[in-house]
Write a structure and sequence with these properties.
The structure holds 2 protein chains of 2 kinds. By secondary structure, chain A is an alpha+beta fold. In chain A, about 20% of the residues lie in helices and about 35% in strands. In chain A, the strands form 2 sheets. In chain A, strands 1, 2, 3, 4, 5, 7 and 8 form a 7-stranded antiparallel beta sheet that branches. A 3-stranded antiparallel beta sheet of chain A has the order 6-9-10, with no helix packed on it. The radius of gyration of chain A is 31 Å and the shape is elongated. The N and C termini of chain A lie far apart (about 75 Å). By secondary structure, chain B is mostly beta strands. Chain B contains 8 helices and 42 strands. Chain B has a 22-stranded antiparallel β-barrel. In chain B, strands 8-13-14-11-12 form a 5-stranded mixed beta sheet. In chain B, strands 3-2-5-6 form a 4-stranded antiparallel beta sheet. Chain B is globular, with a radius of gyration of 28 Å. Classes of the chains: A alpha+beta, B mainly beta.
Amino acid sequence: MNTKCNNISKSTHMNGLSFQLNAKSFAHLLSYAFALLFLFSACSDDDTPPAQVDEEEVITTLIVSLTNNNTGEQIELRSQDLDGNGPDAPVMQVSGNLSVASTYNGSIELLNETESPAENIHEEVLAEGTEHQFFYTQGGGLNVSTQYSDVDNNGNPIGLIFTLATTAPGQGTLTFTLRHEPLKPNDGTLSGAGGETDISVSFPITVE
Amino acid sequence: MQKFLWVSMLLIGTVTQAQTCELIFSGIIEDQHDDSVLSQALISIIDTDYYTYSNEQGEFSIENLCPGNYTLEVAHAECKTRTFSIKINENISKVLKLEHHYEKLNEILLKGNAQRINKSAPVDYLDQTLIAEKSDQSLGDLVSSIAGLSIMSTGKTIIKPAIHGLYGSRVTIVSNDVRLEDQQWGSEHAPNVDINLAQSVEVIKNASALQYSGDAIGGFIVLKPQRIPVKDTLYGKTRISGQTNGQGGSIHAGLVKSSESGWYGALDGTFKRYGDFSAPNYVLSNTGMASNTLAGRFGINKFNYGVELSYNRVFNNLGILRASHLGGAEDQYVALNSPKPLIINDFTYYIDRPMQEITHQIVSIKTFVKSNALGRIDLRYDFQLNNRREFDIRRGSDQNKASLDLDLETHAISLDCAPKIKGLSYLKTGLLGRFFSNASNPNTGVKRLIPDYKRYDLGIYALAGKPLGEHLEAELGIRLDYMNIKAFKYYYLALWEERNYGILYPEFELETLGTQILTRPRFDYLNPSVSAGLNWSVNEQNELSLNFALGARNPNPSELFSEGLHHSASRIEIGDLQFESEISKNISLGFMHSRTNLSLSVNPFIRFIDRFILLEPTGIQQTIRGNFQVWSYRQADVLLSGVDYNLRYTLNSELNFDQQFSLVKGYESDHGAKSLINMPPPQLVNAITYKIDRIQNLEIRLESTYTWRQNEFPDTNFEAFIPETQTLELIDVSSPPGAYHLMNLEVGYPLLKLGNGLSKLTVRAENLLNTSYRNYLNSNRFYADEIGRNLLLSFTTTF
């Protein structure tokens, strides 16, 4: 293949410079032009597909583990979106209801399950604690209170570990929002913190 | 020339009558060979203090002359200096001819000959003087001064020219005879050209220039290369500018060496650097830019042949407004409801992520020969390499990696000839072959936005003009283009199935890999294009033209294959494999009227585009990052219509009034005549130019631009759940911003001549009143105001 390509390109040069151009040399010119064209198509056609790209940064899975301080009972909130920004909606699971007047120790795990083994994103978030923060927002008839249990290098909360206290029974949503590059320190509200949303998941929660 | 001398002789013999020193000597400087006008010629009266420069129309005027005999010296950078004897005893006007060498010898640079082609099409020109004054600007900024042209932008530095609201792959940009291939499919991809390399810029506002391409359904922007005189000379130019907004500037320097024997070489360089620009009330954080260009040409020009080798490299590092980078609908809601950007930092020159880094390189070899039988024959080859890297705000070890890293390679070869046929005013015909290879770096850690593909093009065309009587000329052009594209694309399996591609294109499927499927889409397109026109010089003052252009554009890779999150727009974009070519049928009318103190042009047009590809919201997609709006490409039959209008009224020798108006309307033919998105709103420009001859031609120009609000737009709003308030809120991403009025002031001061060259100092105040406004066609309009007042000082000189 290569020798053929070289031959054609060698014979092309300078022919275009003849002074008395007649129909014959014009025809030559034309044929060289097309030979060059053929060259492009012939020399560069290959059928090897490029490598598949693993979405390195995508967070596919959020797992919130809540452990009851008194009973040791564990509740898991899980949202899994295996195609990342793809068309499939995330799948959400809540393993059970919370008990009234209880305190739970919460921890958050973030995974990229498009890679095998799954990549732990929460470690990255922890390492870049000053640039990240989780926010917990409740809605509907839910009545819980949350408190951060971890701090970044500047003494501001990150929110990968927290405590959650329930009082009265109720039903509503609990939204976990991870903000990248929020204002830190902030007033604890989403609007006050700004930044970009990396995670936003609302779980249906029942306290009974 | 002879005639002129004869007239001069006669004048010398007449008796002096006027006694006061109030005489005016005016005239036009023309090229002896083709009667084209020469701007920036220095006209001086020897042994006096009188001198002036010819303007863009080649005109000059010297006032307050006493009656008497004078010797006139006319110098121009590209011509031999010439002297004329003249006797003045009344106000007179003369045409002075200079010998401009390139018609005779510099054929490679002046394509074709004096005969203009595409005469019936709506064409506008921007000349060297204007380019020199706007040396710091982008191509988009430069051409937007033409009626009917606007800019699609992402902030101040990412600027795409739009013709009647059409941009990107609908506009063909040609620079130094090379069709620019720099991934123009993206709305935030600015063309990578340096306007300083151009002698002039020609804009054709429809698809009729079939010698360049058949798919420019918006039109063409053609940057003509610098003309190099064939004489023993060494000359150069420098353009320097500095400005307050962005606290930066630009420097351009060019050097040309040419010889009588035909050999020549030229070297050009441009360097630009700006920090964060500012709106009237705040800094637009991370909007700085750094850019540099290096260009060289080397060749020989003989009477009947010539060869040129050229290289051109443009590098751009462009910051993107930090506050425009968002996570999803929730963030969008907050950003849209904030009166100012959510992130405002102190001014800095540092360009942080999000940003783009683009390097575009062109190597071209062109040669021509002239023969009696076939006229002029041009053979060209060019190679372009475009590397585009886009950097987003990322996390962890990916922080310094580009999110998009594309290499587009283009090889093109073309053969054109222009035989002289009896009975035709011109004939031009040619063949073109092109090969594209697009490769995406897989190490970005982000799913490819544009798949790897290979593309082959073949084109053939012929254009001819035929005089029908003394004042009427007819033009006809035809072109046929074939294109083949083969891609390797990893689709999300869910999308592949949702779109029914598995049933429509089972032959494309190669392999399923987890949630993705590897496919091999292949498409062929064959498109004819036609252009036909009439040009009628009704009389000395009036000219009429009519042009019909049929163009066809194939869907570009983003329209076919897009499938994923478009970070800068905070939305998911989805293409469609089933798209067919867009077909545009355009009718343009031109009316030109000119007399001594008035010139007027009116250009109405109507354009039917079948299967126009547009992008619009079709739903909301839930992801773990929250909700994103999904925008899908769709085809629809549309109708564009509008009018461009220009007026110049000369009140007296010192005062000019210019007016410009443009209007474009775009609707879908069905769907209840739904308005098209991103159509430029109507705009009216009024300008007064005051040129004071007695103060060395000091020129003051005051310009007012009024832009109406675009009241015709499609409703693309959507609702999103906001967890904080537990409510569904309207996200208004369609309402255009309000009307605005801007004032610009420019003062140009030609300096005393330095040696053989000429210099000019210009002070410009842009947005003089520091108006806060937002531009519908700037995608940053959701987040921030446009830039505020800017004072610019520029100095241009040739030597």
